[in-house]
Amino acid sequence: MVIPRWIPGKVSGMPLLIAVLLLFPLTTGNEFHLDIATQMALIAATVVGLNLLVGYAGQVSLGHAAFFAIGAYGSAVLTSTYGWSAVPALLGSAALVAAIAWLFGRPLLRLKGHYLSMATLGFGIIVAIVINNEGWLTGGPDGMAVAPFSIFGFELSVFDDYTLWGVEVTGALLWYVVAAFLLVVAVWIALNIIDSPIGRALRAVHGSEVAARVVGVDTAHYKLMIFVVSAIYASVMGSFYAHYTGFITPELATFEHSIELITMVVLGGMGSTFGVIIGAVLLLLLPQLLADFQQYEMLLFGLILMLTMIFMPKGLLPTLCQLFTRVLDRSRLSARRRDET
Amino acid sequence: MLAEFLQYLIAGVTIGATYALVALGFTLVYNASHVINFAQGEMLMIGGMATVALLALGVPLPLAIALAILTAALLGLLLHRLAIAPARQADVVTLIIITIGAAIFLRGIAQVIWGRDYHSLPSFSQPEAINLFGATMYTQSLWVLGISAMVVILLALFFARTAVGRATLAVCMNKRAARLMGVRVEWVLTLAFTLAAVLGAIAGVVAAPITLTSYDIGIMLGLKGFVAAAIGGLGSGVGAIVGGLLLGISEAMTAGYLSSDYKDAVAFLLILLILLFMPRGLFGSREAERV
Amino acid sequence: MRTLSRTPARTLARRTLALVAALACGGLTAPLLAADPIRIGAFVSATGPASLLGDPELKTLELYVEKINEQGGVLGRELELIHYDDAGRASEARRYANRLLRSDRVDLLIGGSTTGTTMAAVPLAERAGRPLISMAGAIEITEPVRPWIFKTPQTDRMAAERVLEDMQQRGIERIGLISGTDSFGRSGREQTHAIAADYGIEIVADRTYGPQDTDMTSQLTRIRNTEGVEAVFNFGFGQGPAIVTRNYAHLGIELPLYQSHGVASDRFLELVGSAGEGVRLPASPLLVPDALPEDDPQRPVVQAYKEAYEARWGESVSTFGGYAYDALMLAVEAMEKAGTTEPEAVRSALERIEGFVGVTGTFNLSPEDHNGLDPSSFRLLEVRDGRWHLVD
After folding, report:
1. Using CB atoms within 10 A of its CB, is residue B135 exposed (0-12), middle (13-18) or buried (19+)?
2. Which residue of B has its CA nearest to A214?
3. Partner-chain contact B128 C207, CB within 8 Å
4. C186 lies within 8 A of chain A by CB
5. Cβ separation of B90 and A60 shorter than 8 Å?
6. Is the alpha carbon torsion for B255, B120, C276, C241 positive or negative?
7. Which residue, A232, B25, C31, C252, shows the most beta carbons closer than 10 Å to its own?
8. Which residue of B has its CA nearest to A211?
9. Which residues of A touch C97 (CB under 8 A)?
């Protein structure tokens, strides 16, 4: 009953992810596909961070879109309006987000229940309202343009062409490479956190605070760290997203966007780092696939989401893996029987 | 001065009563199953839109209202039977995502059947407005308040006096114990979802003459109802009602006296303050955890 | 050291490659080069919160591209409409505009339905050097003038001008302003503030409401109780202004109420019922095709569009579809005037269009004015007995 090592699990997930990311550009020369894939990779990285919170700390943030938006608007305003360069702007925004997360998380994560969800909900909506109202800073409901990501004097814009070592490449391809790299780093950090003492402690006491306290684990502190880390994930990806799309609107901060991020986590499989990536990809792909159904798009989207969760309550990847191992075991079992007879 | 204050109060209490009904629906389902039912706002939409549609077909208003509420009740029942019950082993967050799927699905159906337009519903009675110490009040506001009060009283009686009501309370308090006592837990959960849908639909119907209605009105009003429930501590019936009224009044007062730009933010600021200083909500109950 | 340098356009080799690919994919239909269609790229908000705008716009574009092709196309070539739905999201609009310019290689862009989606695409059209004709209202699109950017609706400033002018004529000096917090309302509010003083009008109360709000009695009560208010102006879009109008009547406010062109549709009349009596607003002549004088040059254009649209789609026309009609017709006019689809020629031809009678108004474009309409293209309407009436 040994599961072969090549089955996508924690061991081989990383090489598989890297392989897929490397192979994807070869399957399409279409700039548009690369563009969509870039967006997916950035959102997926955000969701990998959120999954740490939902899947391991057992807490739901209903305001992650606000962290994402603070990263995006922070970078946009600091670079465009105040002339900062991209990297300090990104770090500054992330620091602000970390401070906010810490401020909320510290008192609330000591309590059991949905308090963090409520607080992040309230905070998220306030951020959305402020972004919408303070047009002098954020461009208001029309949104604002963001300068391309620039580092050491060159600008990386998805809308340009570049010559690299004499080879012509599109900005779309370069951005894809950047986003793919960010996703790999995001996953690598997440896997390390999960395997760290914090991750192991949280998994060991999963569900029961009291048990944790009995064995002397300060779960509240660990949860707080995880919450701050997942908020930083959102902020950093928000910053990159802003530079990449070049134009951001208050929609990034809405409650709906927060719900979308949570849905990606649950759809892909809470606690499964690679699962949530699939969740993000599918949820972003679905509207594109359903676009031809026009007025039935919304109806079908809701139906698919509902049915998937009813029949795969653990999420796509964990359910599929389970199914796969079961089939494998059964075939091996029957093979053994055949050998015995 | 008084007239102005009264005008804000009337506006706030009217919309607040609507929030309160929606919040009660959230609370009911949350207590029974710990699920935050995001399809609650859609039940409100169904109530209003179905009434408008039936009215357009020539059905008299009282019958149209009754049928609309019945439709919502049926949808609430189906939501639990077909979508929540089959996944009962799943994590609560998964169930919440299912209700989000259901909400999008219902909105999608409404959009296909009824289109994207806004619709108005006539006031239940004439004249449409009365004067109250210099402030104007929709007579519909009286309907909203009266019906909300009636619903709350009926609900209270139901839980206190009937066997089914007490069984529901038992499930809310302790599922396993209730099951051992012979309560059919699944049946009670279905009842909670159905009742919540009815509450939402009633809110949608009585408010529609004031608020107008459309396929997507449930997004905003559902969210407000949820916030009201959260202010009340998410799990307390009294809290939901107070939360709803507080939310409505704070919005109206802020829009009138302070900044209309930030009137929605005030309610959410309220949540943050309550959470940071009174984390169990105004009326939240203490919950002990078992090892 | 890494070298990373920009090349403004793609190399010839890549173009040849693309052409070969296109030939291979398109099959070997013989008159391919002769009938090489003119590609019009459109990005509209056909679904989502702005679908009220984008849906009739797309339907209008489809209808008239068909019609023009039936009549032999433009410059002897067919029109090909390539369109994407940005669902009202600026980031999607930007992505699709990029796709239209770089992958689909369109000759001209029509779109954004909203100011946000337009502004997201503006830098791309400028960089690619393709004319873009927007169907959105805000003045920031064409002021300051950008060489490649045009728009067909009147600016929100013109709407404010038209309303303030009428107020001035009625001797009104102090008004209350109420506006939505969405893009349309925000921009309208700004413009009203900017020019009110030119008409000797002071804004003494200024309140807002959210686009999804269901009750505005508090804001209106505040405005009514502000000393000296003589009239109220609501700059908003969607159902919000309908609720404002209903609440206004409910509160028994007797002052004149003005709405913006954002509510100019028959739907508004249905929603407000008797509460709408006396409301005035600036609107496209499309709303009152029969009330236009016989000698009005717009009368035949407006009536033809209305008939064609309603026959094809079985629903009533809206002002917004009219913006798309004008955008397409201006593009066609410019191409015919230029005798080519070469972008720079089309662009400068657009700037030279004069006296072009459209659905929205008569366009007089110039290098200094990329909108070409003046406030008089708005007709001032008043609601009487549940119908629109022209105010002289």
Report:
1. buried
2. B291
3. no
4. yes
5. no
6. positive
7. B25
8. B291
9. none
How many angstroms away from the CA of C246 is the closest CA of chain B? 9
Nearest CB partner across the interface for A301, out of B98, B104, B290: B104
Rounded to 10 degrees, what is the CA torsion of C164, C170, C174, C175?
-60
Would A6 be classed as within a structural domain? Answer: no
| CA dist., res. B259 & res. C269, Å (int) | 30
In chain C, beta strands by DSSP E: 4-6, 38-44, 79-85, 108-111, 132-134, 149-151, 174-180, 202-209, 231-235, 257-259, 280-283, 356-357, 362-363, 379-384, 387-390
Q: Where are the domains of chain B?
A: 2-277
For B138, the enclosing helix (H) or strand (E) is strand B135-138
At A290, list the tokens. Answer: 């359903």
Q: Which domains does chain C have, with CATH numbers?
A: 36-154+306-374 (3.40.50.2300), 156-289+377-390 (3.40.50.2300)
Q: What is the ipTM of this complex?
A: 0.87
Alpha helices (H) in A252-315, listed in sequence order: 255-268, 273-290, 297-311
Domain count for chain A: 1
**C257-313: per-residue pLDDT in tens?**
999 998 888 888 988 988 999 999 999 888 888 888 888 899 999 999 999 999 999
Neighbours, chain B (3 or more CB pairs < 8 A): A, C
For the segment C357-376, what is each residue's pLDDT rounded down to a tens digit? Answer: 999 999 999 999 999 998 88
- In tens digits, chain C (392 residues) has pLDDT values of 333 333 333 333 444 444 444 444 444 443 444 568 999 999 999 887 788 889 999 999 999 999 999 998 999 999 999 999 888 888 889 889 988 998 889 999 998 899 989 999 998 999 899 999 999 988 889 988 999 999 999 999 999 999 999 999 999 999 999 999 988 899 999 999 999 999 999 999 999 998 888 889 999 999 999 999 999 999 998 889 999 999 999 899 999 999 999 888 888 898 898 899 999 999 988 888 888 888 889 999 999 999 999 999 988 888 899 999 999 999 999 999 999 999 999 999 999 999 999 999 999 999 999 999 988 889 999 999 999 998 87
- B210 and chain C: CB distance < 8 Å anywhere? yes
Cross-chain residue pair A249–C89, CB shorter than 8 Å = yes
Question: Does B114 touch chain C if contact means CB atoms closer than 8 Å?
Answer: no
- Shortest CA distance to C141 belongs to which of C114, C178, C175? C114
Give the class (CATH, top level) of B2-277. mainly alpha
Separation of CA C339 from chain center: 27
